[in-house]
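TOPIC: backbone geometry
CONTENTS: sequence, structure tokens:
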Amino acid sequence: MTPSSSQESLLQPEMVAELSRRASAPARAIEEARVLRDGQQAFPVMLDLIRSAQRSVWFENFIFAGDATGLRFAKVLGEAARRGVEVRVLYDPVGTMMVKGGSIASALRAERVDGRPFRPVSLLAPWTWPRLRHRDHRKTLVIDGETAVVGGLCISNNWAGRNVGGQNWRDTALFVRGPVAADVSVAFESMWRRAAMEEVPVPTLFTEAPEVPCALVAADQPGAHHVASIYIWMAGHARRSLDITDAYLVTPEPVVAAFEAAARRGVSVRFLLPGNNNHPVAAASARRRYARLLAAGARIYEWRGMMVHAKTAVADGEISIVGSSNLDPLSMTRNYELNLLVADAGTGGAMREMFERDLGGAREVHAADWAKRPLWQRAVESMVSVFDGNL
């Protein structure tokens, strides 16, 4: 397949059906979809949704810090709980330890919010140590089972806008209204039960694929590999363009090979990656892949601002993925992840427009310059290769 051989749209029932099979999830109609850029846009929307909740607020995040941003969310969650809304908060205590601000647990208790840590680990309890391998990396909010926000943003000052004293990390979330929000609820319920070591029933979700626009929940768990399969599908079916933003391009071989093949057959493959990465080892490991991608014809841009943490891709401006999965072994083989896959030209167009805007704040990495990088940098890239499967 080449870009010139066919200009068919990816928004075809058979395409959606194939994505549904790869994600092991049904495609649902969407009533509204809106791309949210950074915490400066996403956090006010999320807080307003919590304030508007009538029946339930189900909130799940890898990092829920006890800093100013976390306390602001805890207060609004508490207000919802006190007016009779069912509020359930699931957070990963291991992830939360990675940022300043400490645990949110005491603030949630003070607000009388039902908060649950996902499989806590203690240095004093060796039997909990194996839990480190499989963490809850999801970032979701579901209101009344009818609206949802899914993306890469954690609840921490790192993601808050500079106007409220935050670091303004670059990230993306997607607001959706419609039946797909109920599937995010089902995914939350499963994780809520896992956190309590309860039996997790296998839900029956499948229905006939609706006409586009539609969306589906790609919910990964250890060993599932759904998201890797979806990225390979997007690279294999894109005819014109594939725009990818990711924090940690420590990509498993089948996925990077699919990107390489797409670029070689003439698809415009572009990556937006961190120029200043919060995990230097992951950054060096990601840069090991630059030479082969550049040689295949892909274009790589490094973000010049604070950390770019978004995990998104859009193929031909029609099929988009937004969520928590990085292109690294942790997300693709070990952690619990959740992404929204959207078949909609309007959403895809907004994603492409945002990507183009982001390139204005990035520096392109050219193959000729990359080949002249210093020996010490090559040595570091070589040394960190031993960590590729464990990042």
Q: What stands out?
A: DSSP finds 14 helices and 16 strands in the chain. The chain has two domains: 11-25+215-386, 28-208. Residues 1-6 have pLDDT under 50 and may be disordered. The CA atoms of residues 121 and 128 lie 5 Å apart.
